[in-house]
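Re-run with default settings, no changes from the original entry. Doing this only to confirm the output is reproducible before filing.
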Amino acid sequence: MSTYKKRSTDSSKLHDRLDHPVIDGDGHIIESRFVLPDFLKQVGGPDLVKRFDKAIANARPGGAKSLFWGNHSGRYTIDRVTTMLPRLYAQRLDEAGVDFVTLYSTFGFRCQVMPDDEVRQASCRALNMMFADMFKDVSARMTPAAVIPMHTPDEAIAELEFAVNELGLKAAMTCNEVLRPDPEVA
């Protein structure tokens, strides 16, 4: 297995001239989806994994949208892989001229809007458990934001308390929309 060799970049050179830390408040994670079912099983058992797989295909009206940062990266594979592997991500922060980063889920946006209460809450919890586990060894350089479902105040409070008090997460990603049927349109 080879190790990654840090490069000197314009960003790292600029950082070297600064007398203060640089904090990135909008970093992103591209989740390794094959790991999530293990955490979903811990939260709700194997039946929940099946329900999640079925629900995720319909999490947004009109289907999933392709996001530019989620597309395949061609010759820049190292950049995509970086967002998936926390230790590599932490090593490459110096190249970006960044001292600390708060990371947001890419996949979590879809989990937060699932209409099935149990699947939505369980998938957010599973993501948070996965993030706490994945990023524990690099917490000096980065912190993942907890994925908080927002359909009701109770579910938001329950997940926020779990994420902070049980998992030790320090930031939160709240859902900016709750899609509900409109009786006047239906």
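The CA atoms of residues 148 and 158 lie 9 Å apart. The chain has one domain: 20-174.
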